[in-house]
Predict the structure.
Amino acid sequence: MTARSILARFGQQEELNFLLTNRIPRRLATQFVGWISKIRQPLVRDLSIGLWRLFADPDLDEAAKPAFDSLHDCFIRELKPGLRPIDPDPNVLVSPCDAIVGASGTVDGAVVIQAKGLSYTLHDLLDDPVLERLYHDGRYVTLRLTSSMYHRFHAPHDCRVVHLNYFSGDTWNTNPIAVSRVEKLYCKNEHAVIQTRLGVGDHVVTLVPVASILVASIRLRFLDVPLHLAYEGPRAVHCDASFRKGEEMGWFELGSTIIVFAPDGFSLADGISQGSVIKMGQPLLLLPG
């Protein structure tokens, strides 16, 4: 048995995984990894990327460049052009990222399923009365990015970002074992509420990127400051940034989660169910009518 297979089996032990990633000083670990991941010294870079690849299986052949300056540079890699074709149907809202689908479906009044036996409310996560009313009985999809996936996220449709609310918070791991045990995990973790208005039908679709342990940094193309644990700017930010369908909106500095909310009348695209794998640009939701 190779060292990689031993480590992979080790990582599959969910109980141990939960203890290692959630019973340590999460904020301190996150800040430390954030610091070391940006070191460009070749030995540190090679060791950190090599160690990461023992636990993850990123497809670096998809990367736009063949070599990286640091572990951080590898995490936020861009892809070669054309690798993620964008569904052109104007009635289709595409996935903003590569992901594994977690919970999805219809918001039960104001209650959203986090995992079997656990839920949270729109108020817990969004803390915005207007959005809470808008997504009452609406649709949602939880998209989980693993650490080896492509970490950038894109516009799900032609849209304009009109408002952002930022919530600093904890850095719980967002893997399945933690999501199934920690109540209101997404609401407790650092997250941003990105309100967009589509170019068709004037529909309002909201993306909620949720940071995770060893991440806690969300970068957005339409803001000139990073959102991370040390952010001290305003929580509410008025925005006016236009994006074409599939255009890059921002990135995580490691894997995490994006929750997509749409009003009642939208429907899930074929094949969207718990555990399914989706690529950025593939159909996620269908517009009304």
